Amino acid sequence: MNNAKAKSVSYSKTTITELMIPSYANFGGKIHGGILLSLIDKVAYACASKHAANYCVTVSVDNVDFLEPVEVGDLVHLKASVVYVGNSSLVVGINVIAENVKEGTLKKTNNSYVTMVAKGDDDKPTKVPELILESQEEVRLFLEAIKRKELKKDYRQKVKEVTNMLAESTPKALLEGERCKLDLKKFSL
Ligand SMILES: CC(C)(COP(=O)(O)OP(=O)(O)OC[C@H]1O[C@@H](n2cnc3c(N)ncnc32)[C@H](O)[C@@H]1OP(=O)(O)O)[C@@H](O)C(=O)NCCC(=O)NCCS
């Protein structure tokens, strides 16, 4: 059932805590980035679907910068909240914090934004409830999300222009100073 009544940010706030076990580690002994991405997706889904009261799908993940390595034995806390709603889309902000329980230290490893879209029983995007903003911080995050959406639109347009430009001609001069070698026997520019 989709409850169309507006909901507060706190209604769907979600935290997942996961212990970093040895099978999550890479050969360097640190936690695989993919494990954290999977947890980010999971907590974003839980948070978005609670707000939407519907099944949601992941459309886009922004700013996945791993700021610090996460160690085996750490407790990873993923704190998610809805920061923006459109018609059928929601943006979930996620803070990822790694806790070393022995030393009692916390370190911030990620701050990501996941865009999810709510789907109805017909598998089509469906309207989500409005978001009730109850603090300056929530207003700030909502406005930031609008700005990010506009910037992403500009970015996509610019990438399209560059791709089209490079499809028409491949100026060799652009490679000057780059760490690559042209094997001119194989092709010509
Ligand atoms: C997400 C999806 C439903 C969008 O379908 P669509 O036909 O483009 O639908 P619409 O154009 O009506 O867009 C629906 C919403 O998605 C948003 N959206 C679509 N693509 C987006 C993108 N790349 N980034 C952010 N938002 C996006 C639109 O802005 C719109 O938001 P609004 O309703 O709040 O205005 C469709 O692309 C899909 O099903 N993708 C696969 C998702 C999935 O399976 N994810 C799991 C990964 S395997």
Give structural notes.
This protein is an alpha+beta fold. The chain has a domain at 7-132: Hotdog Thioesterase (Thiol Ester Dehydrase, Chain A), CATH 3.10.129. It has 3 helices and 7 strands, in the order E-H-E-H-E-E-E-E-E-H. The protein has helices at 9-12, 33-52, 136-168; strands spanning 7-8, 14-19, 55-62, 75-85, 89-100, 105-119, 131-132. A hairpin with a 4-residue loop joins strand 5 and strand 6 (105-119). The site of coenzyme A has 11 residues, from strand 3 and strand 6.
Beta strand % = 25-35%
The oligomerization state is single chain
Number of helices: 3
Report the average pLDDT across residues: 94
Stretches where pLDDT is under 50 for at least 5 consecutive residues are none
Structural shape? globular
User: What is the rounded Rg?
Assistant: 21 Å
Bound molecules: coenzyme A
Helix content: 25-40%
Main sheet properties: 5 strands, antiparallel
GO molecular function, one term: long-chain fatty acyl-CoA hydrolase activity
GO cellular component, one term: cytosol
Family: Belongs to the acyl coenzyme A hydrolase family.
GO biological process, one term: acyl-CoA metabolic process
Q: Could you name the key traits of this structure?
A:
single chain; 189 residues; alpha+beta; Thiol Ester Dehydrase, Chain A; 5-stranded antiparallel beta sheet; two-stranded parallel ribbon; 3 helices; globular; binds coenzyme A
